[in-house]
Amino acid sequence: MATRNSSSSTSAGRPAAARTNGDSARWIGGLVLFFTGLFAAFAVFFSYFCWAGDQSGLLLSAEERATLGVEPENLCGWIGARIGMWLVDDSFGLMGILIPVMVLLVGVRIIRQRPLLFNHSILSLLFITILGSLTLGFAFSDHWSLCSSTGWGGAFGIGVGDLLRRNLGVFGSVIALLGGWILTGVFINRNFINKVNEAGNAMVGGSERFVEVVRRKVAPHAAPADQPLDDGHAAP
Predict the structure, then answer these.
(1) Are 153 and 93 in contact (CB under 8 A)?
(2) Residue 141 contacts residue 164 (beta carbons within 8 Å)
(3) Confidence of residue 17 (pLDDT cuts 50, 70, 90)
(4) CA 98 to CA 127: how far, in whole Å?
(5) Rounded to whole angstroms, how far apart are CA atoms 216 and 196?
(6) 3-state class of 44 per DSSP?
(7) Which pLDDT belongs to residue 234?
(8) DSSP characters over 103-149
(9) What letter would DSSP give residue 235?
(10) Which of 78, 129, 72 is nearest to 100 (CA)?
(11) Cα–Cα distance, 128 to 101 (Å, whole number)
């Protein structure tokens, strides 16, 4: 009987040990992703201010940098400088910092085990990253770049922005981007469609009031021309 009790207690204790090991693995994986995203986010943030000096250093090999005594200006080192170049210059420009934020959120999600609105948050950030890069790339192209060597929208935003401009023209591209932002706003919060309707109604109401004011101002000047001639000036 003692043997049975001990074996049953041992078998009953195994699932608890398995759950504990699974929780430990989950915590380790979540923390790795969390700190990786945090490091990458700071690396991208610092690269906004020191990209010029760091990218000239990245063109050199490690031996050349050591020989010449070239040190990174990015506080996250040469790895941080390279991450900043990948996510900002070669990808999404100013919006590149949202990629590490998504990795950070994945780590938090794994640690907390709360799937509620997780996919919604990640997709929302992804849409904002892509549309923000496209908008900045279309609006500024490679001009007035202060945060990267390519432009505000990065290589991705500038390339796709030029593609939109060639195929849709300026007006068509503006309509496409505006529609994309409206759809993204609706995806993030369905109440956003109410804001769009209110803005549309306000624009229509303002247009109607403007037309009415113009009509009232023009009508008195147009009235004498519509009046019949006096009898004294009428033809015999």
Answers:
(1) yes
(2) no
(3) very low
(4) 10
(5) 30
(6) helix
(7) 47
(8) HHHHHHHHHHT--TTHHHHHHHHHHHHHHHHHHHHHHHTTSS-SSSS
(9) -
(10) 129
(11) 12
Task: Work out the mean pLDDT of the chain and round it to a whole number.
Answer: 81
Contact 144, 127 (CB under 8 A): no
DSSP 85: I
pLDDT band at 46 (very low <50, low <70, confident <90, very high): very high
Lowest mean per-residue pLDDT among 72-81, 111-120, 123-132: 111-120
Domain ranges of the chain: 21-189
Residues 6+ apart with CB under 8 A from 133: 91, 92, 93, 94, 95, 96, 153, 154, 156, 157, 160
User: Which residue type does 194 have?
Assistant: N
As a whole number of angstroms, the distance between CA 11 and CA 228 comes to: 109
The token pair that represents 47 in the structure block: 């690269």
Helix and strand numbers, DSSP H then E, in the chain = 7, 0
Task: Please tell me the pTM assigned to this model.
Answer: 0.70
